[in-house]
Amino acid sequence: MGTPSTLRTESSACCRIELTDTVEDYLKAIFAITSLGEPASTSGVAARLSVTPPSVTAMLHRMRDSGLVATTTWGHVLLTEHGAVHARSVVRRHRLLETFLHRVLGVSWDEVHEEAEVLEHHLSTRLENLIDAALGFPDRDPHGDPIPSVRGKHEEHGETPLAQSGPGDIFLVQRVYDTDSIALRHLAELDIRPGVSIEVERRPSDLAPMWVRVGGERCSLSCAVVNLIHGRIESSAAAS
Amino acid sequence: MGTPSTLRTESSACCRIELTDTVEDYLKAIFAITSLGEPASTSGVAARLSVTPPSVTAMLHRMRDSGLVATTTWGHVLLTEHGAVHARSVVRRHRLLETFLHRVLGVSWDEVHEEAEVLEHHLSTRLENLIDAALGFPDRDPHGDPIPSVRGKHEEHGETPLAQSGPGDIFLVQRVYDTDSIALRHLAELDIRPGVSIEVERRPSDLAPMWVRVGGERCSLSCAVVNLIHGRIESSAAAS
DNA sequence: AGCCGACATTAGGGCGGTCTAAATCTCCGG
DNA sequence: CCGGAGATTTAGACCGCCCTAATGTCGGCT
User: Fold this and answer.
1) Rounded to an integer, what distance in angstroms lies between the CA atom of residue A22 and that of residue A49?
2) What's the gap in Å between the CA of A100 and the closest CA on chain B?
């Protein structure tokens, strides 16, 4: 911490700010929020990082001064290209680590995230590349999240949510958001993970859960869980 | 970093101080210095950590207040049992990581140290155990340094230095201190590593290097390099 | 015995990051 | 058009860790 890891080779040396763990966390948070299109608000970043808004304001100031972030409307920011490059780098390290820990050490699906969360800040470029190669240059992590390539374009959200499918649809799971560890453990027990197909029986409503069939088993999915699941509708039964 | 990694399970909860990365570094430094018998001096710790003596004084104060360290003579400290437990834990994580990175990822001998140096502070107990098991519970790292067990006694220095051997001796290398990355790379090229035997031709003097044979090749070793090599004299030729 | 050099400590300041409390700004609805 | 709710920012403080400069303390040497 104090000393920033000198093992990472940063191409652009033009920034005054240290790329501390904290800055990387802010970068990642803003990346996640803005990847849905909207600029990030102070309070949004604060909530995601569990800090108070004044802390965010102060940090955003420094990040703006060093060109990582640009303010748009009042209290809202977007990543600059420079900031986005670094943000993608953090996300790449995070997802490579998740894949590595899962495949090599057998860390379970729902535990992998919190481990990667702390290691991502301390992975040297050397280890990053070694891990990438050892895994055969994967393009998705265990949750199906796309792993940004070291250089080049990156598409964060391409899948359609499970909630958009209707009864009779065959839905191919491609991605399960790892924001909720408990839900993830639940889904692991149900064998719902990227690559499996599920058959929709009933859409979720405000009152009732969604019902699906997966691997012959019939099960219900709470709304919170359904929203984590994204993928592609393989065959649609609904003609309406 | 700010937030200390909550993933590590600390048995003794009786300490007021946070076990930050920095504290772990101090612990490790004091452990290394005092493992040779002598208490650690302020300036000694300062030199090892590349920090100024006043910083060490301040930190030692806090560490003493939280029972990690006890002051003996003027400006000298020893680890308490409590502190030693934590120190061994850090060393254990460091050496497990070195072994893991070397064996699994193929990180070279001389590079493994600096990688472990930063990761050691962020390895959860869960990953520590997983790595330990994946490696088959090793008891030495790639340099031959003993890996402290999770509980139980630990002997840090048992080997005799190469410098103590005389002409004609067959010396079994058991350990090569990893304090000097350049020397380590040099030794790797010479195929001198734990497990290999070398034959001593001439002792080092103030002026001349040591001469040894290893794998049929005859080579010279500078004094700085010789001091890193420790092991056991297999057969002694010197009757004097 | 006394002095001097080496070492340790105090004093005081800085930076990164966090917080609370108070002030300010924006935007929307009446 | 103005006021109030809600979000943002400023103000001020704290902690961890580092630094430099000045001061204290020890032991050895003359």
Assistant:
1) 10
2) 11
**pLDDT number for residue B238:** 57
Residue B32 host element (H or E): helix B21-34
CATH class of A1-156: mainly alpha
Contact predicate A15/A82, CB 8 Å:
yes
Nearest Cα residue in chain A from B132: A105
Query: Mapping DSSP to helix (H, G, I), strand (E, B) and coil, where does residue B182 land?
Result: helix
Closest nucleotide C1' to the C-alpha of B73: D26
Instruction: Chain A: give the shortest CA distance to residue B129, in Å.
Output: 10
User: How many of the other CB atoms lie within 10 Å of CB of A7?
Assistant: 17
Mean pLDDT of B17-38: 92
Query: Tell me, what amino acid is at A74?
Result: W
In the predicted model, is pLDDT for residue A70 greater than 90? yes
Q: How close is the nearest chain B Cα to the Cα of A131, in Å?
A: 7
Question: Domain-by-domain residue ranges, chain B?
Answer: 1-156, 160-235
pLDDT digits (tens, 9 = 90+) for B61-120: 999 999 999 998 888 999 999 999 999 999 999 999 999 999 999 999 889 999 999 999
Interval A153-171 mean pLDDT: 89
- Of all residues in chain A, the percent with pLDDT exceeding 90 is 69
Tokens of B198: 């070398």
Alpha-carbon separation of residue B67 from A6, B39, B160 (angstroms)? 32, 16, 33
Nucleotides on strand D lying under 7 Å from protein C-beta: 7-12, 16-22, 25-27
Q: Give the nucleotide with minimal C1' distance to the Cα of B1.
A: C17
Pairs of residues, one from chain A and one from chain B, whose beta carbons lie less than 8 Å apart: 62
Contacts of A119 in chain B (CB under 8 A): 119, 122
How many other C-beta atoms lie within 10 A of the C-beta of residue A34? 21
Across all residues in chain B, what is the average pLDDT? 89
Instruction: Name the residue with tokens 């999240």.
Output: A145
CATH architecture of B160-235: Roll (2.30)
A20 and B1 within 8 Å at the Cβ level: the answer is yes
| H or E segment to which residue B211 belongs | strand B210-214
How far apart are the C-alpha atoms of A178 and B83, rounded to whole Å? 37
Model confidence band, residue A6 (pLDDT cutoffs 50, 70, 90): low
The burial class, CB within 10 Å (0-12 / 13-18 / 19+), for B156 is middle
Check: CB of residue A158 under 8 Å from CB of residue A227: no
Burial class for B58, CB neighbours closer than 10 Å (0-12, 13-18, 19+): exposed
Q: Do A1-156 and A160-235 fold alike per CATH?
A: no
